[in-house]
Amino acid sequence: MPDIILHNYPQSPVAEKVRVALGIKGLSWRSVEIPRLAPKPMLTQLTGGYRRTPVMQIGADIYCDSQCVIRELEHRIPSPSFFPTADAGLMWCLSRWTDGALFDATVKLVLGAAGDALPQDFAADRGRLYLGPDWADGLKAANAALPHLATQLRAPLFWANQQFADGRAFLTGDAPAAIDAQLYHVVWFIRGRWENGPAFLSEFQGLEAWEAKIAAIGHGTFTAMTPEQAIAEATAHDPVHISGHDPHDPQGLKPGIEVTVSPDLDGGEQPVSGTVVAASVDTFTVARSDSDIGKVHVHFPRAGYRVNIS
């Protein structure tokens, strides 16, 4: 198998989720540091326009969104499993909340609390990405609603804290699971990026002990790679052959259909255009060609993404 390459930057909470996932499996990987702000020309050359963080690359296969990354890592390296109990379906359902409403509330709290101290270029970029076209009003509203936002985070963290009342080490038992990484990135973000985060989290002693265990897992073993080297890796490989479609797909996605893909929230991002190679209930893949790289497969999750048939 070609090297696992993670296109990320150190401050990204979603990248931290994937770095912890790589640590849970004890993997060796290559790290390409990408810009925090657009444009990200060498990343989007691989993805066809997708610019969110992180992106995983294995040869000429490009995996967008942490959902796809975790699924593919589990498929390629099944042991140790991200799903050490019989609750995989429940964990995926719960991850739509940790990665969705819970993370969104955390972003609003962190950005809102930063107020005027937030660099304007960063505020414009992340505000548009997470709050939509009316991001400036959204940031003002978040700043005015900080106690409410903290309350909305406190209740679910209280519930998570209760999980550890029986002495378990991780959320589902004695072994770390995908859901541990998926909740941890929210806690990591609160602690590191909100001035009141450490004091806010100190109420939850079980959660803090769990947080320390996750941090101790680490990120596996990684070495730096340049963007140019990552592009050369894609050029040197062919995408893995896959096929298939879901006969119950509400949009009727099948191989050969031309589509454009973008995150479900209007973040002002460039859609990715390509030809459907395979589609299932939770993942789909498009093929695209770049004049310098050649053919790549770009993989997306179905949940949280909009597919428009050309």
UniProtKB/TrEMBL annotation:
Signal peptide: none
InterPro entries listed in its UniProt record: Glutathione-S-Trfase_C_sf (IPR036282), Glutathione_S-Trfase_N (IPR004045), Thioredoxin-like_sf (IPR036249)
Domain GST N-terminal: 2-81
CDD domains: GST_N_family (cd00570)
Source organism superkingdom: Bacteria
Protein name (database record): Glutathione S-transferase
